[in-house]
Amino acid sequence: MPTFDSSEKAFMQGYHRLNNLVGWLVFAIATVTYLLTLEPTASFWDCGEFIACSYKLLVPHPPGAPTFLLLGRIFSLFSFGDVTKVSVLVNTLSALSSSFTVLFLFWTITILAKKLVLGRPGMHDDRGLEPSSGQTLLILGSGVVGALALAFSDSFWFNAVEAEVYAMSSLCTAVVVWLMLKWENRAHEADSDKWLILIAYVMGLSIGVHLLNLLAIPALGLIYYFRRTERYTTAGVIITLVVSSIIVGLILVGIIPGLPTLAGSFEVFFVNTVGLPFNWGVIIFLLLFVGLLWFGFRYSFQRKNHILNTALLSLVFILIGYTSYLIIPIRSSFLPTINENEPKDVLSFVSYLKREQYGDRPLLYGPQFNAQPIDQKEGAPRYVRRGDKYVVAEHRLETIYDDAEKMLLPRLYSSDPNHINQYKKWVDIREGTRPSMGQNLSFLFRYQMGHMYWRYFLWNFVGRESDVQQAGVLWPTDAGKNGLPERIGDSAARNNFFAIPLIFGLIGLFFHVRRDGKNALIVGLLFLFTGLAIVLYLNQPPIEPRERDYTFTGATYAFAIWIGLGVLGLADLLRPVLKADGLRAGIAVALGLLAPGIMAAEGWDDHDRSDRYNSVDSAKNLLNSLAPNAILFTNGDNDTFPLWYAQEVEGVRTDVRVAVLSYLNTDWYIDQMKRRSYESQPLPISMENKDYVQGTNDYLPFVENPSVSEVNLREFMQLVTQNSPLLQVRTQSGHSLLSFPTRKFFLPIDTAAVSKLNIIPKDRRSQLVSRMEWDMGRSAIEKKNLVILDMLATNNWKRPIYFSSTVNTQDFMSLQPYFQLEGLAYRILPARDPNYQPQGDEGFVAKDLMYENMMRKFAFRNLDRADIFYDENQLRFPANYRDKFARLAQSYVDAGDLKRAKEVVDYTLKVMPDKAIPYDYYTPQLVEPLVKVGETQKANDIMDTMTNRAQQALAYYSTSPNSGLFDLEVQLQLLTLQSVYRAAEKIGDRPRATRALQLLQQYYPQPQG
User: Fold this and answer.
1) d(Cα 586, Cα 596) in Å, to the nearest integer?
2) Alpha-helix residue ranges (DSSP H) falling in 217-257
3) What is the distance, to the nearest Å, from the Cα of residue 901 to the centroid of all Cα atoms in its chain?
4) Does the structure show a pLDDT above 50 at 11?
5) Counting Cβ atoms within 10 Å, is residue 417 exposed (0-12), middle (13-18) or buried (19+)?
């Protein structure tokens, strides 16, 4: 070991202190940025669920995120009982995770930069080497530039200000990379392996956040190989990568689901075969496993096998971190209100970990999209507890395809007709032909890699066109706005970085490769495995419900290292011109700061969520649409998770039972609906578990019986619960299942009893029917539909039943004539709307009730502020508001109450003005009420504004080389013109109607052939 005198030690400590000080300064900048732009409530998508589950330690969707939930619970405690602060505190967890990621990235860059600046590339201990003042400026400057470039990058910033797992996942990646570099500087010390064991523990914890962190293992493996090997070889590098990849596979398959699966096998054997009580199989497995570990440690001590001992210690610490997952079955066993998949025992826990409810996608070998199945076989059994044994509830069916219909690396695999249409946008596919490997790879490179990865990558470092889904890259040459629709040209998300971050990153990449090939390879592997490798693993379908750029922030992190090192590359380019180290370093750093500077300036307005309340307000407004003790059917994600947040965290309308339609296709969720939740009594479901257990009544096909013209719903449900032979039919495989013999259903109504309940408004009492009649209009009834029918037959109108107005109309089962609109939901009542038209508006408008809800109860916080950015997802709910306000105003016009109609339309335009929430295709519905109340000029302005915007947008998309990607945008503009045309026709404005019609005819897609 080298020795140093006191002055040298002081000098070295000076660099060390500066490195720490500047790092914490960068951390402070990132933290202040994220706290200033933090969303104050629960964002859309999974955030509402994660906040609710953190607050009460509930069980979210598989595979869960227990480490995140536990930390979120700790953060939520700082609300000190003020439930409105819980969301911002859990969001702050993401903000701090992100700023700590920036901190560790800074220190990672300075470690790598120091090697380059001091001319000591490779793997060695350089802690004793002290840079000069100019070199120090260069090293620290590169760290600042790279770290802030990550801090202000589009995808990373997006994750930093909401309660999702990706910010904490990035932190885990940043920590393990930094720890590995710390180990590399200390690898010669006797106790250096403690750093490897700490890395194993962090990785174990990261499993409870997200699995993305494991993709750093190959890069870490190379650091280990280069540091432990004096003379490395290509074969050695390849072997290291293979071994590292095997380690990743062992953790992903062998540890995470593998150990619980093995424990489950022990459990079934010792309970069913040996006759032990429940859970004894798991206990025996744990005892054997601990015994094997003890034997392994004993053997390593006896043989003095250092590598085996370190490997076993690492395994143990991974498992210690992984034990955060114990919270899932523990909390599930208490039957909490959110308990997805109900993984309360080891067998259901394995299913939860494997995400079996989502199905799977072929990865390395599988069928192409038009492959025809030739058989089905029974796969792994699914066990449930019954009595004192485990019994097989069902065997998961596996579809068998002919080998001739399969291919390597199948990318064109989905047989969904919508997906097939999307495939055709990327690959020239002919009907009925098997895609070639060339077409398969073309889709991989053009869509999965090009559109769903490189596009996102360039968003972060070149620029982004807008927030419209499928938006492209904004290159420096595309800075102008001529000819662009307002929705694109004026979008706050239209960010142009003039490719400056990309240029710095490429300079850093080439400089790194030229000066330090080993470490450049490590960063490159990190970039590859957290980017393109994920693309291969995900095998994404050709259309997604939202952009997926948040998945690839690991690659953004890796490229930010090169952006930082780009400062060194620039300084090296300036060397022939500027000889003074300090001046050259200062200019290089100053120029380097342009990258994060322009990213911050361009990105602030679209990443600032500090005054957005739309997601939670929309949930509260929907809940407040409902009568007491209501049952509400919703879609998933954005229709449901904000509702869960409002009920679980803020305690809003806990008398309402939210029933998610997609979950009602599962037995565990129906079981939960039959239990009490807060103020909500169990749902009125007559079916027993045997009637809906998975594999039973998953769907009932329509098999016509000419002798049955119609069926009484109550009698039908009785036949279902009796598994009656009258409904049974045989499938081709020989199995029997229930069917329905006619699409025409009826439900007798006890009108006297209904009248006593006083649920029919006074002005509708004449519409009360003695029996409800409807045509199911479906070829099959899914389990969720069966549950709804059961409740209609069982409830006897004692509890109000609603559909959210955003539910897919196919799930209404043609019950629309009996809908009553009271706000943002349709109530089912035994009163038939006399004016119902199949192609018209749905739901009889209960004017006074709806007025009370929307005008007095609903909150529309900050939807009138033009300085707040509302992205594509945020704009969907205000459109729903406008539709309902227009329905209310029109109903008052029809009733001759023009004063109330004017009040409604004026309020609509006040709380959601065009300057803040741009007019949508529902807005023209306000035209007729505006004209009727004497506001013709406002009506004309709406029609002209919307027609002009639609014309500009359609002209743009019709000439865009990527027009096929924006079918949804084109359809929305055509719907807008259609809505304007109808509005103009209603008020007799022929010129405006003619203009809208001509544009429709010009741009409406013409049939081919």
Assistant:
1) 16
2) 217-228, 234-249
3) 40
4) no
5) exposed
Please report the sign of the dihedral spanned by the C-alpha atoms of residue 57, residue 60, residue 63, residue 65. negative
Task: Count the alpha carbons within 13 Å of 890 in the hemisphere toward its beta carbon.
Answer: 19
Residues in the chain: 1009
- Predicted confidence at residue 5, as pLDDT, reads 47
Nearest-angstrom CA–CA distance, 451 and 233: 36
Strands 801-804 and 631-634: parallel
User: For 94-137, what is each residue's pLDDT tens digit?
Assistant: 999 999 999 999 999 999 999 999 998 888 888 888 899 999 99
> Could you give the CA distance from residue 684 to residue 654 in angstroms, rounded to a whole number?
17
The span from the CA of 392 to the CA of 382, in Å, is 6
pTM of the model: 0.94
Report the sign of the C-alpha dihedral through residues 335, 341, 343, 346, in that order.
positive
Beta-carbon count within 10 A of 46 CB: 20
Query: Could you give the CA distance from residue 273 to residue 854 in angstroms, rounded to a whole number?
Result: 62
Residue 1009 has pLDDT above 50, yes or no: no
Structure tokens at 172: 């885990």
90 CB-near residues (< 8 Å, 6+ apart): 50, 51, 54, 55, 72, 75, 76, 163
| Strand 819-821 relative to strand 844-845, pairing | parallel
Query: Are 757 and 750 spatial neighbours (Cβ–Cβ below 8 Å)?
Result: no
CA distance 675 to 840: 38
Q: Rounded CA gap, 225 and 199, in Å?
A: 16
Q: Report yes or no: 656 and 634 within 8 Å, Cβ to Cβ.
A: no
Contact 561, 112 (CB under 8 A): yes
φ/ψ (deg, to 5) at 374: -110, -15
DSSP structure class, residue 730:
E
Query: For residues 389 and 345, is the Cβ–Cβ distance under 8 A?
Result: no
Q: Which letter does DSSP use for residue 799 in this model?
A: S
Q: Which residues contact 82 (CB under 8 A, 6 or more apart)?
A: none
Cα dihedral 524→528→529→532 (10° resolution): 170
What are 464's two structure tokens?
Answer: 């982004």
Give the C-alpha separation, 743 to 781, whole Å: 10
How many CB atoms sit inside 10 A of residue 564's CB? 33
On whether the CB atoms of residues 299 and 315 are closer than 8 A, the answer is: no
* Predicted confidence band of residue 3 (pLDDT cuts 50, 70, 90): very low
* Beta bridge partner(s), residue 395: 381
Which among 449, 452, 477, 448 is positioned nearest to 462, based on CA atoms?
477
Q: What is the mean pLDDT of the chain?
A: 93
What angle, 0 to 180 degrees and rounded to 10, lies between the N-to-C axes of helices 280-302 and 306-322? 150
Angle at 700 between CA 694 and CA 701, to 5 degrees: 140
- C-alpha dihedral sign at 942, 943, 945, 946: positive
CA neighbor of 511 nearest in space, from 569, 574, 584: 569
CA 921 to chain centre: 26
Provide the CA 308 distance to its chain's centre, in angstroms: 40
> pLDDT tens digits, residue range 48-73?
999 999 999 999 999 999 999 999 99
Distance between CA atoms of residues 399 and 339, nearest Å: 30
Cα–Cα distances in angstroms (integers) from residue 356 to residues 257, 359, 547, 701, 997, in the given order? 11, 5, 24, 25, 49
Give the residue ranges of DSSP H helices in 37-132.
47-56, 66-76, 86-117
The token pair at 745 is 């259903």
Strand runs labelled E in 406-485: 406-408, 463-464
CB atoms within 10 A of CB 731: 9
Reported in sequence order, the residue ranges of 653-807 that DSSP labels E, i.e. its strands, are 657-660, 699-701, 711-712, 728-730, 736-738, 744-748, 771-775, 780-782, 801-804
The candidate with the shortest Cα–Cα distance to 742, out of 768, 771, 781, 772, is 781
| 469, burial (CB in 10 Å: exposed 0-12, middle 13-18, buried 19+) | middle
